[in-house]
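RECORD TYPE: inverse folding
INPUT: structure tokens
STRUCTURE:
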């Protein structure tokens, strides 16, 4: 059966439209490749879908720019002039913006003021006063944060000192405070916390004199106490 004639009009269904575009694009590129191989032609095809997705075919051993340059030389049409003019206009605007910004910076440093009239000088003064106000407020806030941080650190140090003094007072009042009877090498343990770590002072047991046969019994001294810091 012969195929029915297809009416050429916009396909309303988006899915069918995308499928048709993909199939016919591939067919068009296939024909362009056949022209390149069979006829030694240079072909360039640039396509954009309805979603602005680029699809391009270019004959082997050539580039799109070479095709466009050849088109310009043969047709005497400069396709780059408009783009070049737009680029030059953009460059001019950017240079002007840069020049104005440099002038404003110099004016805020007290330079180039002779170019300003009274109203412009007044406006510049108001802007700088507002800037100084914002900087001053930020400085005061930063200083307040530093003071609060210092207070917290001092409070922490004071608490540590109070706890240590309290432990020492309890130790002085009760000789048996903190004693550990583990049948081991130590007869007392004193614990306190310093700078985020916990320290334990251990004192050698007095009755272990048999380890030192050449020495008589002696009272515990500073050398009998060993302090260990346990990190938390």
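DESIGNED SEQUENCE:
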């Amino acid at each position: 059966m012969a195929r029915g004639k297809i009416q050429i009009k916009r396909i309303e269904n988006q899915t069918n439209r995308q499928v048709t575009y993909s199939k016919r694009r591939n067919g068009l590129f296939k024909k362009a490749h056949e022209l390149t191989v069979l006829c030694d032609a240079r072909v360039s095809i640039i396509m954009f879908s309805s979603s602005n997705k680029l699809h391009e075919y270019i004959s082997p051993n050539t580039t799109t720019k070479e095709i466009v340059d050849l088109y310009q030389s043969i047709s005497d049409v400069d396709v780059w002039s408009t783009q070049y003019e737009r680029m030059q206009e953009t460059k001019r605007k950017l240079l002007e913006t840069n020049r104005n910004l440099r002038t404003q910076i110099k004016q805020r440093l007290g330079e180039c003021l002779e170019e300003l009239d009274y109203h412009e000088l007044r406006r510049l003064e108001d802007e700088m006063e507002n800037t100084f106000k914002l900087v001053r407020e930020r400085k005061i806030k930063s200083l307040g944060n530093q003071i609060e941080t210092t207070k917290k650190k001092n409070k922490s140090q004071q608490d540590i000192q109070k706890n240590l003094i309290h432990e020492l007072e309890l130790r002085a009042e009760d000789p048996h405070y903190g004693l550990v009877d583990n049948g081991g090498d130590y007869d007392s343990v004193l614990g306190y916390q310093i700078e985020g770590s916990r320290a334990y002072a251990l004192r050698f047991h007095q009755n272990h004199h048999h380890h030192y046969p050449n020495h008589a019994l002696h009272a515990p001294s500073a050398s009998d106490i060993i302090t260990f810091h346990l990190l938390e």
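NOTES: The chain is about 55% helix and 15% strand.
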